[in-house]
Amino acid sequence: MNAPVVWIAFPAVLGLILLFLPWERWVTYIGTVAMLILAAIAFWIPTDTAQLIGPFSVRIDSTLSLFGRQMSLTPADQIVLILIFMIGAFWFFGTLAADGARRIVPLGMIVIALLVASLAVQPFLYAALFIEMAVLVTVPLLLKPRQTPGRGLIRFLVYQTLAMPFILFAGFLLSGITAGPADIDLIVQAAGLLGLGFAFLLAVFPLYTWIPLLAEEAHPYAFGFIMTLFPTFSLIFGLNFIDRYSWLRDSATLLQALRLTGLLMIVTGGVWAAFQRSLSRTLAYAIIAETGVSLLAVSLPDRQTGLQIMFFLLIPRALALGVWTLSLSIFQLDAPLRYETLQGLGRKYPLAAAGLVLSNLTLAGMPLLASFPARQALWEKLAATSFSSALWFALATFGLWFAAIRSLTVLVMSKEHAPWKSVELNEQRVLVGLGLLGLFLFGLFPQWAQPLFASLPAMFQHLGK
Amino acid sequence: MDYLQWTASILLAVTSVGLLVSRDWRFSLGLLAGQYFCAFWLILTSWPLTMSAAKLVTGWMAVAALAMTQIGLPEETQPETSWPQGRLFRLFAASLVLIATVQVTHDVQLWLPNAGPQIVWGALVLIGMGLLHLGITVQPMRVIMGLLTTLAGFEILFATLDTSILVAGLLSAITLGLALTGSYLLTVNTLEEAE
After folding, report:
1. Helix (H) / strand (E) containing A335
2. Which value does ipTM take for this structure?
3. How far is B189 from chain A (nearest CA, A)?
4. Residues 176 to 195 of B: which have CB under 8 A from any A CB?
């Protein structure tokens, strides 16, 4: 058995089969269980290691040759695989309450398979091609039948597609050169192309205009799922570039550029979030700020700590976005997601209102909630590097806090003596409640996940040491 | 052989400018098909015939997929909503792009020693025209044609750098995927959601 067959081909084929299964609940159950099984296999059977399961000896080879190239998932990728498939299971299980399982689960499985392929392909440069294929599969996931494609989706498609040729072309140019003095001109030009490609891929300032537009057009849960996966894999892809080229690893200019870009995204995301009149757009700007947080973490001079912070934030982010978009999906069944139409709905949907506000506060780094330990560490390290950057970080955090308080005010304001009466369905209560529990548990006991994340930077040959 | 490649590059310029100004989808798709043939001719200088032919066939399949979708749709009655709409303006913008590509061909050729100026210029024309196309429209059909044009330009350049079958296959899959995505975007508002 080969690792790419288990973690790429199997979910892709199962996703294709599930597309034709007419029972929504069964699609959710099968998709969730499949993701959990794949995470469990990654946990218990590391690649290239024989394991005894009862009387059988099981071994999964890490590498598969494909048209003269290799797809390889080594033991260093084990933790990422566990994380990705656990995140997949969490999102797919949420479709029980969020609706749209017949699109989100099968297409989501194919997207996850393609993104895992982007991790596995050698040379890593070809990852851009798999990410682009995942983008194409995303379109039917975000746009349901009877809906007209809007500007947000079109821009998403255009920007993400343009990223691929720029990165691929720059990568090909860079792969043929060394960092000798004669190559400096070529390196600068190729680095420019590479930067442009990643600016498109990560939707950095000012190329993120499609995110708020798409948030308004797409189903909130599908949008949240995509915005959890894509920035994560794009960042890992970008880190692979930094890991591969010594001139990038040692570049002080790169660190400054990452810090400046990260700050611009956090500040614009955080401040804009505070002034929106639509809950979808508030979510979109919080997501933009989150990408900025990851870039800031990568920009820290202490690489090990920066990478650990970046990886540590993956689970709180997935949890918070899951609960936030699940709550939005519940509200959307009742009214459009604009402040004027949502007034007082918190009294009908108290748990969804709590989910929305607390997940917003999680991404704002509120103490006791899941993101707090990592954001606190990041803020501390940032202050040691640049005090002004730490102040801008505080301003952005304040913007996200303000957005949460504003959403809470809108959701609970109502005519006098309007009763509090929950009309949420039991499955909605259970799923939002479990998500909230997760947010608190992860905030109260961050040390539980520490062993998992400590070894994650090891997936990079140079950065992880 | 050089003059044949120059002819292909000049034809690429003609087809891509034609795509920009044409308003009839039949004419546009015909130009796109011609564009893929010229791109095939240029790729042939770097790749073996079988791999280059695969690129041509994929391009034509993409065109066929878009054409089949358009045939089933009512004739477009709404004018282009994006600014600018005038053909003269588009021709002017296209001429600026052509001048710019002539200007940068030499610099880009320094990066690609295996590629002749005719190949680099042809590819840059496609990339430039595709980007211009993307900048002035939000109609799904036109956006997909713009993306296909840009990618075809990059593919001509990639072909001089890499001869991997895997890359060729994945790029072909992306070309087809883009066409299918375009078909989905064109028909999605007429589809019924499965119960």
Report:
1. none
2. 0.92
3. 4
4. 177-178, 180-181, 184-185, 188-189, 191-195
- In chain A (465 residues long), the average pLDDT of successive 10-residue segments reads 91 94 91 95 87 82 85 87 92 88 92 94 88 95 88 94 91 70 74 90 92 94 94 91 84 90 94 93 95 94 89 92 94 88 88 94 93 93 92 94 94 79 87 93 86 77 75
Of A139, A162, A172, nearest to B162 by CB-CB distance is A172
Distance in angstroms (rounded) separating the CA atoms of residues A287 and A198: 17
CB-CB contact of A408 with A339 (8 Å): no
Sorted by sequence, the CB contacts under 8 Å of residue A127 that are 6+ apart come out as A118, A119, A121, A237, A240
Contact A157 B189 (CB under 8 A): no
Long-range CB pairs of A146-150, under 8 A, 24+ apart, other chains included: A146/B188, A146/B189, A146/B191, A146/B192, A146/B193, A147/A217, A147/B188, A147/B189, A148/B188, A148/B189, A149/B140, A149/B185, A149/B188, A150/A213, A150/A214, A150/A216, A150/A217
Q: Which residues contact A103 (CB under 8 A, 6 or more apart)?
A: A140, A141, A144, A222
What band does B84 get if pLDDT is binned at 50, 70 and 90? Answer: low
| A75 neighbors A46 (Cβ within 8 angstroms) | yes
**R_g of chain A computed on alpha carbons:** 22
Tell me how long chain B is: 195
Q: Which tokens is A352 given? A: 């969804």
Q: How many CA atoms lie within 13 A of B67 on its CB side?
A: 14
Ordered DSSP codes for A130-144: HHHHHHHHHHHHHS-
pLDDT at A62 (0 to 100): 86
B134 inside 8 A of chain A by CB:
yes
Instruction: Confirm if A403 and A396 have CB atoms less than 8 A apart.
Output: no
Please check whether residue A229 is in contact with residue A114, taking contact to mean a CB–CB distance below 8 angstroms. Answer: no
Cα A381 to Cα A394: distance, rounded to the nearest angstrom: 13
Q: Is A338 exposed, middle or buried (0-12, 13-18, 19+ CB in 10 A)?
A: middle
A186: chain B residues, CB-CB within 8 Å: 111
Q: Angle, nearest 10°, between helix axes A252-274 and A387-412?
A: 20
Buried b (16+ CB within 10 A) or exposed e, B135-154: ebbbbbbbbbbbbbbbbbbb
Output the six-digit token pair for A452.
């998992």
What is the C-alpha to C-alpha distance for residues B161 and B121, in angstroms, rounded to an integer?
16
CA distance A110 to A220: 19
CA B26 – CA B36 distance, rounded (Å): 16
Angle at B150 between CA B145 and CA B176, to 5 degrees: 55
- Cα–Cα nearest to A349, from A333, A338, A365: A333
Q: Please indicate, yes or no, whether the overall pTM of this predicted structure exceeds 0.80.
A: yes
Neighbouring CB atoms inside 10 A of B75's CB total 7
Tell me the angle at which helices A387-412 and A279-298 cross, rounded to the nearest 10 degrees: 160
The DSSP string of A338-404 is BHHHHTTGGGT-HHHHHHHHHHHHHHTT-TTSTTHHHHHHHHHHHHHH-HHHHHHHHHHHHHHHHHH
What does the block give as tokens for A133? Answer: 């294929």
Choose the mutation target among A19, A104, A114, A139 for the interface with B, i.e. most B CBs under 10 Å. Answer: A139
Please report how many Cα atoms fall inside a 13 Å half-sphere around the Cα of residue A340, on the Cβ side: 0
> Could you tell me which residues are beta bridge partners of residue A278?
A338
Given a contact cutoff of 8 angstroms between Cβ atoms, the answer to whether B68 and B187 are in contact is: no
